[in-house]
Amino acid sequence: MQQDNQEHMPVLAEALARIITIDRDAVAVDATVGHGGHSLLLGGRLGPDGILIGFDVDEKCIRKAEAVLSKLSCRVVLIRDNFSRMEAHLCQLGISRVDAVIADLGWCSSQMSDAGRGLSFQENMPLDMRLDDRLTVPAADIVNKYPEKDLANLIYEYGEEHSSRKIARIIVEYRRDRTIKTTAELSQLVCRAVKRQPGFGRLHPATRTFQALRIAVNDELGSLGRLLEKAPELLRADGYMAVISFHSLEDRMVKMNFKENKEKGIYSILTAKPIVASDEEVRSNPRSRSAKLRIAQRTIA
Fold this sequence. Notes:
This protein is 44% helix and 15% strand. By secondary structure, it is α/β, with parallel strands linked by helices. The chain has a seven-stranded mixed sheet with strand order 3-2-1-4-5-7-6, with helices on both faces.
């Protein structure tokens, strides 16, 4: 029950509420609506003339958010698509500029525990990892079909895993005789490759490998890059771009994008350093432990 309650706790909500101010007739976008936590925060500030637009690739999240946001007084538009295609959808709605975009790049606890997702190494699940079930390449295809060198490079680049070559070699040796189908199989292979079992150290030995595969399957960094590139064109003067990241690859992309746009006179950066969760928030919501929030504001065009 505790895990289920944590699903509804938006990460770093207090910091967002303190820094982001929008009028009641504003247009606000939640790029990753999830179960509606941050959307409820944004939408609660909007009146009948305001518009809240939420994106998510997960149909279950869209349905959950619909229920959570149903009592807001503003207009609510929920779109099942990747936030990287935000510009096209805004155009279809007749909206050229928005007042705020918030992107929480984490995932819901329910997605981790969903047996069909294959995101967790804590339970034995099919090796899938697609947050959007319309995608055609599950993690099992990458693990079983990628050449050893490409697999090692992927695990190193997206997982920052220094044992990537050992892990790729063990995987390739194993798959010569059988197909790797489950998260438990993959987790055991990674543990064998790094010669370490769960319980030693803070991170599970398979954490970085699973991260790398999830990023690759869902094109997470590519989608983030496209959003960051388009954001200045979508924001009104004084509009906010806020991103909550959960690992260094995402945070580095956001940091560099904000810096480059500041140098061009496009953004002012409102967070000199990323905002992180307080000890109290981490105790009440453990998923906030690795969260980093950066916020930029569009300068007057």
